[in-house]
Design goal:
Length: about 280
């Protein structure tokens, strides 16, 4: 006996009505894609496309998880002008040719660090500064290659008790309110973070686009990229690093390079030179 399958066939109108009911919440572009598939009058192709898209939307795992520093207080080292340039700058540093060459060779513009210097990203050490004897710590601005009006800041914690989450960061202190697009900082501009005791670690944070160029204020409800990987929003541990430290032993300086873009996105160039500074530690 031959089974009559004609009654199981779906007409174009039936398919269209079913799709409209299932996907009315989808955006305009996605609807157009469905209509094009339906015009092919191939139920099999349409079914595969629909089930694939449903599976993707249902089972997709987030690649980033927002990190909110809601329990953190924010402090300043002083005041700043309408461009975000600090009024507490010290005498300018003269950046040596050796430091400039090291930065140029290591953190070149739009040069993917995963290819050029993967050892910097594979280093499991936290990219923070550990104080081993009472010291004054200074930060000097070198360069920036950002598209955002970023803010650069720091936090401290006990070396023996590194932060496990953003809730462990009690205070963030602004260093450079605007160190990105539109900054008036010049290479060599320097500030003193303070004097720190043995057993203290200093972490750094890039606050993405935190500087409001109209109001000349800072927004704390923005993405924070920290030198401590565990505080960053990317889920993949291979993409959580946003800061690299490069020791420049001839001058006892620590070069600090930051990446200011979500590393799961195609917009990220992974060059880690969106903010480049160096720390000078004076015992």
């Amino acid at each position: 006996m031959v089974k009559d399958t004609r009654k199981n066939k779906l007409s174009f109108g039936d398919i269209l009505k079913s799709c409209e009911q299932l996907f009315e919440e989808f955006n305009y572009l996605f609807t157009i894609l469905l209509l094009k598939l339906m015009k092919m009058k191939t139920y099999t192709i349409l079914s595969i496309a629909l089930f694939t898209l449903l599976a993707c939307t249902k089972d997709a795992t987030p690649v980033t998880v927002p990190v909110k520093f809601t329990s953190t207080t924010y402090e300043t080292l002083g005041t700043w002008d309408t461009s975000g340039k600090p009024n507490y700058l010290l005498s300018m540093d003269t950046i040596s040719a050796g430091v400039q060459a090291t930065i140029k060779n290591t953190l070149a513009e739009q040069s993917d660090l995963r290819t050029t210097h993967p050892e910097l990203l594979n280093n499991p050490a936290i990219a923070d500064i550990t104080i081993t004897q009472p010291s004054d710590v200074f930060i000097t601005f070198v360069s920036q290659g950002a598209t955002f009006a970023n803010t650069f800041a720091f936090y401290t914690y006990s070396t023996d008790n590194p932060p496990a989450s953003e809730k462990d960061i009690k205070t963030i202190t602004y260093i450079f309110p605007n160190v990105g697009r539109g900054t008036k900082l010049k290479a060599g501009d320097k500030v003193k973070l303070g004097r720190f005791d043995v057993g203290t670690s200093i972490g750094f944070v890039l606050m993405q686009d935190a500087w409001d160029r109209t109001l000349h204020t800072l927004d704390t409800d923005v993405v924070h990229f920290c030198s401590n990987d565990v505080l960053n929003p990317e889920v993949d541990p291979n993409l959580k690093k946003h800061a690299v430290l490069i020791s420049y032993s001839p001058e006892s300086k620590v070069l600090i390079g930051f990446e200011d873009t979500d590393r799961t996105t195609s917009r990220c160039d992974n060059d880690f030179n969106d903010i480049v500074t160096y720390a000078t530690i004076v015992h």
